[in-house]
Specification:
about 0% strand; globular; about 375 residues; single chain
């Protein structure tokens, strides 16, 4: 297929615009955090706003209700998890000397007899260190608050960022139809059909992944919280909720949640029963996530392999920091759709099919 000179110039121009936008994004990454967070939340919440407006609720009121509901939900999660995590951290510090003595008494002889490995822990030194710093560990929150007062500008910046997120989110959701229409109007008319199709495919892939993954996270958080509570784990709720929330990152959610659950079970010092319960709950949870929830709620047709998701998060995080991690999945969805378009064009091309070029000028070239 021959690409005429105007088409070539147009392609080069659009490629230049894309490169310029990418460079601008890289330069502005330090100040884009609230806008990126608000854009992600706005994209996820837009269907709820559309559902309300379809029932004759004014769009501004629907946006406000959605933002208030989301804020209350996130605040509830923080208020539930923060005190529990703090208490568990203090308990872990207090129980560590005992756990070290237990490992030194039972694990060291096992490693010596089985693998010939010398493994010894100095429990006495660690116990004296904990005794020396125990009070400061218990007073961790006042210490953090004092440091926050010293770094007043950083605290003000963080508060301003948090306050800016709902404001930006409100305007994005309020103007979302106008933004979409404005973007549609800027597309050159000859490219309108193909561009609309590609953008629709990107939206389909991204929305199915994000909203499906959100459903998986909520179900897993409920499952792990209930399962660990039945297994007798004292900190079942924070461990279960964190495991479900971390499931957004493949393997990290399962591995991090399992580590937290094992530590919590060891801190209870109630024998093998909690540990066995943790193993059963996480084993069933992994099967449930891999073979039931992810295929049915996220969909295998998306094609975002877990390793690709991890690489995208790490690569965009390295290039653009926290903002890069927020936009890693949208960018990955766009790259995936672009790759599919290139594959289809390649498989339909005369070069791949071995057909002679239809234009004599191409044959001369």
């Amino acid at each position: 297929m021959k690409l005429h000179r105007p088409d070539r110039l147009q392609t080069v121009a659009w490629a230049g615009v894309g490169a310029a936008l990418l460079g601008l994004f890289y330069l502005l990454a330090p100040i884009l955090t609230p806008f990126a967070v608000a854009a992600v939340f706005a994209y996820i919440c837009d269907p709820a706003v559309n559902w309300m407006t379809a029932r004759r609720i004014p769009r501004a009121a629907a946006v406000l209700l959605v933002i208030l509901g989301l804020g209350m939900l996130l605040s509830l999660v923080v208020l539930i998890l923060a005190p529990m995590i703090y208490r568990e951290a203090v308990l872990l510090i207090a129980r560590l000397p005992e756990l070290i003595e237990l490992a030194d008494a039972r694990l060291a002889p096992l490693l010596q007899s089985t693998f010939g490995i010398e493994f010894r822990l100095d429990a006495a030194s660690f116990k004296s260190w904990v005794a020396e710093h125990g009070q400061s560990a218990k007073d961790l929150l006042p210490v953090l608050l004092s440091h926050a007062r010293e770094g007043g500008m950083a605290l003000v910046s963080a508060v301003a960022t948090l306050a800016l997120i709902p404001i930006v989110m409100f305007y994005l959701l309020q103007e979302w139809p106008n933004i979409v229409q404005a973007l549609r109007d800027t597309i050159p008319r000859p490219m309108l059909a193909s561009t609309t199709r590609v953008l629709g495919n990107i939206d389909s892939v991204l929305s199915e992944f994000l909203r499906g993954q959100l459903s998986v996270m909520l179900i897993l958080a409920a499952y792990y919280s209930l399962g660990l509570w039945i297994a007798g784990l004292k900190f079942a709720l924070p461990v279960g909720v964190l495991t479900g929330l971390l499931a957004f990152i493949p393997f990290v959610g399962f591995g991090g949640g399992l580590l937290l659950a094992v530590l919590a079970a060891l801190l209870q010092a109630e024998g093998w029963s909690p540990l066995l319960g943790v193993g059963i709950v996480f084993g069933i949870g992994q099967l449930l996530e891999s073979y039931v929830l992810t295929p049915y709620l996220v969909g295998e047709r998306i094609g975002l392999h877990p390793l690709a998701v991890i690489f995208a998060l790490m690569a965009f995080g390295q290039l653009f920091g926290f903002v890069g991690m927020l936009v890693a999945l949208p960018a990955s969805a766009a790259i995936l759709v672009g790759w599919r378009e290139l594959r289809e064009a390649w498989f339909a091309s005369p070069v791949y099919l071995g057909q002679p070029p239809s234009d004599p000028d191409d044959a001369q070239r």
